[in-house]
Design brief:
about 475 residues, mainly alpha, two-stranded antiparallel sheet, two-stranded antiparallel ribbon
Length: about 475
C-alpha cells in the first residue's frame, strides 16, 4: 500500500513519507474543521434574523452536508488532479457576503444566491481554461509577490489570535488583549480566559516540539490543547448527538441541485437585474481569485513548490481545481469553495504532495459520520496552529525589498492590509494599486505590465461600486 502511494504521489522525489503526509492532512483538516460548524451557521443566519427559524434550521442542516461534500470535491481534485497539498473549503468572508449582503441585504433567497456562486464558478473555469488566471498571477510584480507570504502569515495570525480569544474587540482601541485578571472579580465569566490559556499552552507545546524536531508538532499541539481544555471547561465532550438522517433529508430537499435561476428575475426589471447579477458575480470572482492566488503563492513558497521562474508548480491544475469546486459547491448548496489559507498548517507540518490533500478529503467525507468527534475540538485548540504557521510564514519577510520606496510601499500595503482588513484579496489589491501609482508617478512606466494596470483599475471600480 505504501509503495503504491509513494509511486502515485512521488513521495521520495518530494523528500517526504506516507506518515508525514497523513499527519499533515489530519493537521490541516483539524485546523479547518471549524468551517463545518461555522459555515452552516453563517448561511442560515439571515433566516434567523428574519425570524424564520424553521427555514434557518433546514438550511443549516443542508449546508452542513453541502460543506462536507463541497470541501471533499475541491480537496480530492487537489489530491488526484493537481497533486498539491492544498485543501479547499467554503471561504470565510465570501460566505458572510453571501449571507448578509446578497440574502439579507439585497433580498435574494438562499437558493437564488447559490446561482451567483455557480456563475462565478463557471466564469472561473473559463478563464482558467484559457490561461487568463495564470497570466494574472504572472502579472503580479515581484514587490507584491514577495510580500504575499508574510502578509498571509499575519492574516493567519490574527485569525488565530481571534479564535483563541487572546485578542478581543475594544471600542476605544479597536482591539485589545483578553483580561487575564478577571479571576479577581467575583462572578466574572472565566470562559474567555480559559480559552486563551488553552491556546497559549497549545502554542508553547507546538514551539517546544518543533525545536525538538518532533514530527507532527502542530497536530500533537492541537491534540494536547484539546485535552488541556477538558478540565478548563473549554473542550465540550457532552454534545455528541447528531441526527444525520434529518440533515440528509434537508440537504436533498433544500440544498442539493436547488439553485433558483428563474426566481432571480420574477417581478424585476430584466436589465437592472442582469447588471446587479453581473456585478455580484464579478465581486465574488475578484475576491475568490485573489484569495486563492494569495494563498497559493504564500503556501507554495512556504513548501518549496516554486520553480526556477518563481511560479507555483502545477499552478494551472490547482487553479482549475479551485474553479471546478466553486461551481460544484453551489450545486451541493454551499457558498464559494476556495483554496483555504489553513492549508499552510498542513504544509508547516511537512505536507508536500497530494497525499496530504487526499487525507484531508477523506476526513471531510468521514465528517458526515464523525462530525461529533470533530466538533469537540475547540477553536482554542486549533487557533495556536494558525498562530504558529503565521510565525513560520512571517519569516519570509526577509525577501521583501524595503530599500526602494516604489517597491517598499506596495509591499507594505500588501502585508498590512491583509490582517487589518481581514482579507487576502484586499492586501493584493492595494499592493497592485499602489505599485502602479508609484511606478507611473515616478517615471518608471516600463515596470508596469498592461495586465497589472488593468487589474488595478478593475479593483478600483469594484471598490467604488460594491463593498465586500
Amino acid at each position: 500500500m505504501n509503495s503504491r502511494l509513494e509511486r502515485l504521489f512521488q513521495l521520495k522525489e518530494s523528500k517526504t513519507t506516507v506518515r508525514t503526509e497523513v499527519l499533515a492532512g489530519i493537521t490541516t483538516f483539524i485546523t479547518i474543521a471549524y468551517i463545518l460548524i461555522l459555515n452552516p451557521q453563517v448561511l442560515a443566519d439571515p433566516y434567523v434574523i428574519m425570524g424564520d427559524m424553521e427555514m434557518a434550521g433546514r438550511i443549516a442542516n443542508g449546508v452542513f452536508i453541502g460543506t462536507c461534500i463541497g470541501a471533499f470535491i475541491g480537496t480530492i481534485l487537489c489530491a488526484l488532479y493537481a497533486k498539491v497539498p492544498f485543501v479547499q473549503a467554503p471561504g470565510m468572508g465570501l460566505n458572510a457576503f453571501f449571507a448578509y449582503t446578497v440574502v439579507l441585504g439585497m433580498g435574494y433567497t438562499y437558493n437564488q444566491a447559490l446561482v451567483i456562486v455557480f456563475l462565478s464558478g463557471v466564469f472561473f473555469i473559463i478563464i482558467t481554461a484559457i490561461g487568463l488566471r495564470e497570466a494574472i498571477i504572472r502579472s503580479i510584480p515581484d514587490a507584491v509577490k514577495s510580500a504575499i507570504t508574510p502578509g498571509v502569515g499575519l492574516f493567519i495570525t490574527i485569525i488565530g489570535l481571534k479564535n483563541a480569544g487572546l485578542v478581543i474587540s475594544n471600542p476605544a482601541t479597536l482591539v485589545s488583549m483578553v483580561d487575564f485578571s478577571q479571576w479577581r472579580t467575583p462572578g466574572a465569566d472565566m470562559a474567555p480566559v480559559m480559552g486563551a490559556l488553552t491556546a497559549l499552552a497549545g502554542l508553547l507545546i507546538m514551539g517546544i516540539l518543533h525545536v525538538k524536531k518532533v514530527k507532527g508538532s502542530i497536530f500533537l499541539g492541537i491534540i494536547a490543547a484539546t485535552i488541556i481544555g477538558i478540565p478548563l471547561g473549554v473542550t465540550q465532550i457532552s454534545n455528541l448527538n447528531m441526527d444525520l438522517g434529518m440533515k440528509l433529508q434537508d440537504f436533498a430537499e433544500i440544498s442539493f441541485m436547488h439553485m433558483d435561476f428563474s426566481g432571480m428575475f420574477e417581478g424585476k426589471n430584466m436589465v437592472e437585474t442582469l447588471f446587479t447579477i453581473t456585478m455580484l458575480v464579478l465581486s465574488f470572482s475578484l475576491v475568490n481569485m485573489f484569495d486563492s492566488i494569495g494563498t497559493l503563492l504564500g503556501a507554495a513558497k512556504q513548501s518549496g513548490m516554486i520553480d526556477e521562474n518563481g511560479e507555483v508548480i502545477r499552478m494551472k491544475q490547482a487553479l482549475m481545481s479551485d474553479a471546478i469546486s466553486t461551481a460544484a459547491g453551489a450545486m451541493v448548496g454551499t457558498s464559494t469553495v476556495t483554496t483555504v489559507v489553513e492549508s499552510s498548517a498542513g504544509i508547516a507540518a511537512g505536507g508536500r504532495t497530494g497525499l496530504t490533500s487526499l487525507t484531508a478529503a477523506l476526513l471531510f467525507l468521514g465528517a458526515l459520520l464523525f462530525a461529533p468527534v470533530v466538533s469537540i475540538v475547540p477553536g482554542a485548540a486549533t487557533a495556536p496552529a494558525l498562530i504558529f504557521v503565521g510565525i513560520l510564514m512571517l519569516s519570509n519577510i526577509k525577501d521583501v525589498d524595503f530599500s526602494e520606496m516604489s517597491n517598499a510601499l506596495p509591499a507594505f500595503c500588501t502585508i498590512v492590509f491583509m490582517p487589518f482588513t481581514y482579507s487576502i484579496a484586499n492586501g493584493v489589491a492595494l499592493g497592485l494599486i499602489t505599485y502602479c501609482v508609484m511606478k507611473l508617478s515616478t517615471g518608471r512606466r516600463e515596470d508596469v505590465k498592461l495586465l497589472t494596470l488593468v487589474i488595478s483599475l478593475i479593483f478600483i471600480v469594484r471598490y467604488a461600486c460594491m463593498t465586500l
